[in-house]
Every structure is written in C-alpha cells, then in structure tokens.
UniProtKB/TrEMBL annotation:
Record-annotated membrane-spanning stretches: none
Organism this protein belongs to: Aminobacter carboxidus
UniProt protein name: Transcriptional regulator GlxA family with amidase domain
PANTHER family: ARAC-FAMILY TRANSCRIPTIONAL REGULATOR, HTH-TYPE TRANSCRIPTIONAL REGULATOR EXSA
Lineage: superkingdom: Bacteria
Region forming the signal peptide: none
InterPro entries assigned to the protein according to its UniProt record, in alphabetical order: Class_I_gatase-like (IPR029062), DJ-1/PfpI (IPR002818), Homeodomain-like_sf (IPR009057), HTH_AraC (IPR018060), HTH_AraC-typ_CS (IPR018062), Tscrpt_reg_AraC-type_HTH (IPR020449)
MF-aspect GO terms: DNA-binding transcription factor activity; sequence-specific DNA binding
Taxonomic lineage of the native organism: Bacteria, Pseudomonadati, Pseudomonadota, Alphaproteobacteria, Hyphomicrobiales
Amino acid sequence: MNAPHKPATFEVDTCRLDDQGRYSNRKIAGERQSPSVFLVLLLPGFSQLCLSSLIDPLRLANALSGQSLFHWCLMSLDGKSVESASGISVEVSGNSLRHQKAMALDPHAAVLICAGEGVEQQRCPELRAFLRRAHRADLPLYALGTATWLLADAGLLGEARCTIHWGKMAALSETFYDLAIEDALFVRDGKIVTCAGDLAAFDLAVALVQERCGIELARSICQHVIADRWRDGASCQSVPAGLRYGNTGKKLLRIIKLMEKHIEDPLPLEEIAARVCLSRRQIERLFERHLSTTPRRHYTAIKLGKARQLIELTDMPVTDVAIACGFVSPSYFSKSFKDHFGTLPSQMKCC
C-alpha cells in the first residue's frame, strides 16, 4: 500500500524581526514566493509616478532590512533612454528587447511592463514575441497602468482575471471581448499580475514585500513614506458614487450604480423603480432635488460618457459604439452626442 501523499512545500528566503528588532533572513517553508528580480520594460509615455511607486518600496525594503532582497533592471525597446509622460527621460541599463532575445532569460526574474497613454499604438511584433517568450519560460508577467492591453494583444491573458487603469477599462473590454476584467487595484491570477498603475503600484509593491519579508517590514515602509497603510488589491479603483455625487441619499446612489452597470442594456425606469422599491415619481424627485436633472437625462449622460471613451481610445466604428452604449439607433446617438459635447462622434474620431 502506497504511503499517503504529502503536500509539496518549498522554501522562501524571507526576513523577520529578530529579538533586537532587526530584520533577519530565515527560510519559511510553505510561504508564497514573490519575485526578487524584475526586468522592467519602460515604454514611451509611461507614468513616472507608477514607476516610482513600484521601485521605491522595493528600494526601502533593501535599505530598512540591510539586505539585497529585491533587484531591478530597467529596459527599453531599443536600449536608449525613455521619455515619461511628464517629459522626464529615464536612463535604462542598455538592455533592449533585441539584447534580451540573444540571451537566456533569468529563470528567477519577473518581467514587468510599464506603459502609459497611447499603448494601443505601441503594439509591435517584437514586443509580442518577447512577452510570449517570457510566458513560455514560465516567468511571472506584471503589467502596470495600461500595459494589460499588451498582454491581451499578445494573447497571454486567456481566461485569467485582470485589471487595467479605469480610463482604458471600457475600451479594453470592447476590443477584447472575452477578458475577465475587474475593477481592482491589482489582480493576480497565476503568474499573470495586472495593476491599475500610478499609486496602485505602491500597494502592489508593499504587498510583494509583505509576502516575501513579512508584515513588519511592509509597515515600516509605509511609515517611512508617511502612508498609514497599503490597500488590498481587490479594492475598487473607480471613485465610489457617493464621492462623485456628494451628500446624496442611499437610494439615489443605488439607482446611479444600476445605471452605470447597465449601459449596453439600459434598464427602463419602471424596472429601476421596482429594484429600489420606489415609485417613478419618487425617483424623479430624488434626481431633481440632488442633481437638478431628470433620471433619463442622467442615464443618457452616463452612456455618452462611456461613448466618448470608446471613440477617443478605440477604433470602433460609430455604429458599434452606439450599440455598446445602449442607443437604439446611430442617428439618435449622433444627435445626443452633439447635444452633449458640441460635436458629432464622427468628427471627434477624426481629431
């Protein structure tokens, strides 16, 4: 008779506070291992806030522990410096995708892509090949800011859950229909990690430190940068309706959330009223009192807001945008769009 199967364990280099309050390395069996080496690919127009929010917590982990726990190497497409969205150029280590193509990828490294606006135009065969090669090598892939778009373009997301900066969320979901996109600061699904970028990169970095080195060092990093805490990855990145609409009632906020959830398939006002246990007239009075508008106009404004995002950020035809935003006809959509924004959707697409 075979001996009972024992679950596999692995060892992770971690650090903990010793009796004197210093961080010390020891091996802890069974803990999740975070990457310790990052190959950071910077794309033109990347967010410098995002890069610093990721790297500085790792730097502080090294400094506060007195150990070289994390390492990073900055790369670019051509090995030259990369200009960020703020106009500041960042020097890289001379590494380029071509250089990496000629070398074996470090099996202990993770590949991290940091991108900004215009990521749709940064897709290229060379980048796809590099990302697919890293994926075949079973390296963790981290996408920050808008870089999730590049993983989707390379066909690496599959059924993996993912997130992206809220400004690209609608466009990503319409371009890649089958993605499991979540409104979250960061999402980890296997060896695919996607992050909304900017300050969410800080939350991701501190979470990595906590996994590898424990909560004491993670708290010390927050204390050092005058942050009271780091947020959970599952926290929503979108602004809660309560903050957007000020001191409104709970019923009205619930109605607005229903509208935002049902854009492509708009709910009749009668169905919304039934869901929140109010009459049509009560809903109309809520909108008039708190927002000085009607429910229909507010619902249309929500749909037009999404439509503008899709027009500015995707190549979708105007007709498809109209359908995706719940308009019954392209002509009615164009008229509503012009009334709201002062220009036709076709004219905005040409700008």
